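<instruction>
Derive structure tokens from the sequence

<record> Sequence and structure tokens follow
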Amino acid sequence: MTVTVHQGDLPADLSFGSAVAIDTETMGLKPGRDRLCLIQLSAGDGNAHIVQLKAGQYDAPNLKKLLTDKNVTKIFHFGRFDIAALWAYLGVLTEPVYCTKIASRLARTFTQHHSLKTLCSDLLNVSLDKQQQTTDWGANELTPAQIQYAASDVLYLHKLRDALDVMLVREKRGALAQACFSFLPHRALLDISGWGEEDIFEH
């Protein structure tokens, strides 16, 4: 595995193919308050790229081009949060998207456990170390442990998508999942616009 850290943007000539796994690290769980610090990406080849964004430095034209490329599917786990953070700080609404958490909730109704750590364990027999999850992602210098943790959050998303797609087809919920993925960027916009907790679909 190779992990490459980039400052401020991706290289212009870097390609991730037709699908890229993406995760973000922020200073907290409220995109309007807690700034975006890292964006991790992987082509599913066992390698990861990490873009470190300093406060106020959100130009990143190459990254924005990738995020808005209609020919590249962006794979997230709990994409609702990441898409909102990307919109809040980069000003781009990324699509098309796939969310392994939504796929798991639709396909694995026999369980209430849909975390990335659980999915990696259950579907791939991979154990993730989450000890660095709540560290200071805004630090100027990332520790090796932080870099390793950040990379691990995107290394397995392609394989999880493949495994979950088989289950979605088996349970005849593939079309429903795709409809949810298509709506997900708009769900993130609702969060950013103040409808995070309110269910606008209820009576």
In short: Helices lie at 61-67, 79-90, 100-107, 116-124, 144-155, 157-170, 174-192. The first strand starts at residue 3 and ends at 7. The chain has a mean pLDDT of 95. Residues 174-192 form the longest helix (19 residues).
